[in-house]
Amino acid sequence: MPTSPFAHIYTYVTYLFGTRPLSVLDIGLGNGKLGFIARDLLDVMLGESYKREDWKTRIDGIEIFPDYIQDHQKAIYDNIYIGDAFEVIDTLGNYDMIVLGDVLEHFEKKQALRLFDKCVAHSNKHIVIFIPLGNNWNQPEIYGKPHEKHLSAWQFQELELFSCSHEVFQYAPGPYGAFLIKKNDYIDYRIRKLREPIKKTKVRNSPGIRERYSLCRESISKIDLARYDRYIANAEHRNYFLDTNFKEHYRLIAYLSTFFNNLEIFDIGTNKGYSALALSYKHSNRVISYDLVECRELHNSEELSRIDFFLGDVLKDKRLLKSPLIMLDTNHDGGFENIFYRFLKKNNYKGLLFLDDIHLNRPMEVFWNSITEPKEDLTDLGHWSGSGLVDFLKTEE
Ligand SMILES: C[S@@+](CC[C@H](N)C(=O)[O-])C[C@H]1O[C@@H](n2cnc3c(N)ncnc32)[C@H](O)[C@@H]1O
User: Fold this and answer.
1) Is residue 181 lining ligand 1, measured as CB closer than 6 Å?
2) Confidence at residue 141, expressed as pLDDT on a 0 to 100 scale
3) 271-291 burial string, b = 16+ CB within 10 Å, else e?
4) Mutation test of ligand 1: which of 24, 91, 128, 147 has the most ligand atoms closer than 8 Å to its C-beta?
5) CB of 359 closer than 6 angstroms to any ligand 1 atom
6) Binding site membership of 190 for ligand 1 (Cβ less than 6 Å)
7) Distance 31 CA to ligand 1 centre (A)
8) Quick check: CB of 35 below 6 Å from ligand 1?
9) Whose CA is nearest to atom 19 of ligand 1?
10) Which residue has its alpha carbon closest to ligand 1 atom 11?
11) Looking at domain 9-185, which of 3.40.50.2300, 3.40.50.620, 3.40.50.150, 2.40.160.60 is its CATH number?
């Protein structure tokens, strides 16, 4: 049914009041009560604007069932996107707050966690979860809609770990939780979790890679990306690109590029263009950057004469196998990543392969674990979602 309990509503109001988001994305908006409360508090009460044309907060929603959406939700939300949130969210920008109200339990656990990672990536500041807890909130399909079924059960302990504020309410089937999560707290939590297995993989997989390439915080800290500021097109990405706290990978890949001179470095998965920008750090090299779709957003890109951007199949580019450094940052579902890795092996590639997001989700973990060449998990020096380096120059010691 497209609604939820009511005990958490005042808690939701305190979350909104305390964080004052300028934009909200309500995932699985259903009948729309969470959007209505956000509008009423943020614009009508705090913004003192009861007229729609004066509303300042952007409130968008995603809903999988089009027939749940009626005139009353359309009057409150700015945009309502119809479709599976797991896919739709990839097409949207960022929001100050992303609300998951009684929706995570409609996904299988693994997919729910991947959706949550996507929410973190699309949130500027906060994520809010309202969710039944324990194992007794069973719900079958209703109204003949398969997505109404509960597919996963959640425990207080697993969400409390990274939430800055939470509350639990008691109902007949069991507890029900409200969690406010700061984006950065969740990233810190993931980094802490990821560091645990890193020690094991380092010893088992790759004696010597760090030493061979002087990969340490001290060397990488010498890379200063500030000179690229004029190319950065949005404030949020400025924070990522210029990060100096070893949460992002841009300094690490710029550092890797300094090992080479007068060579062509490949960047696969251009996206907004920031990895190509970092890989162009050493002036004598060229960067060849590929994507399947155009989504670049760099400023002053006409000045970036050492980067060539292409749309199309990178595997058809004859220069690829001669590249000493390749960065792969594509779909993160293990599909193209595996095809690409097998292509390098089959063609006897000799160089370094940098992989982004190796711990983002299960398929990426499986992909990373399947690599048999000497490799090193560099997450502690790179991206919080996992950075890995594969050394095709060396055979296994
Ligand atoms: C229990 S209702 C919650 C409605 C609202 N968030 C609230 O708290 O009142 C869950 C909603 O999530 C929607 N939903 C379920 N799976 C979804 C998916 N994969 N993508 C988008 N919406 C989904 C359902 O159709 C339903 O409207």
Assistant:
1) no
2) 64
3) bbbbbbbbbbbbeebbbbbbb
4) 147
5) no
6) no
7) 9
8) no
9) 84
10) 28
11) 3.40.50.150
What are the tens digits of pLDDT across the range 186-244?
999 988 887 765 444 443 455 688 988 899 999 999 999 999 999 999 888 899 999 99
**Is this model's pTM higher than 0.70 or not?**
no
Domain locations in the chain as residue ranges: 9-185, 206-391
The two domains 9-185 and 206-391 share their CATH topology (first three levels equal)? yes
Looking at every residue in the chain, the average pLDDT score rounds to 92
Q: What spacing in Å lies between the alpha carbon of 105 and ligand 1's midpoint?
A: 10
**Looking at per-residue confidence, does 197 or 306 come out higher?**
306
Q: The CATH number of 206-391 is which of 2.60.40.10, 1.10.3720.10, 3.40.50.150, 3.40.50.1820?
A: 3.40.50.150
Token pair in block for residue 177:
């939780």
Instruction: Indicate if ligand 1 lies below 6 Å from the C-beta of 12.
Output: no
- Contact by Cβ (8 Å): 269, 314: no
Express each pLDDT in 336-369 by its tens digit: 999 999 999 999 999 999 999 999 888 889 999 9
Atom from ligand 1 closest to the CA of residue 68: 27
Residue nearest to atom 27 of ligand 1 (CA): 30
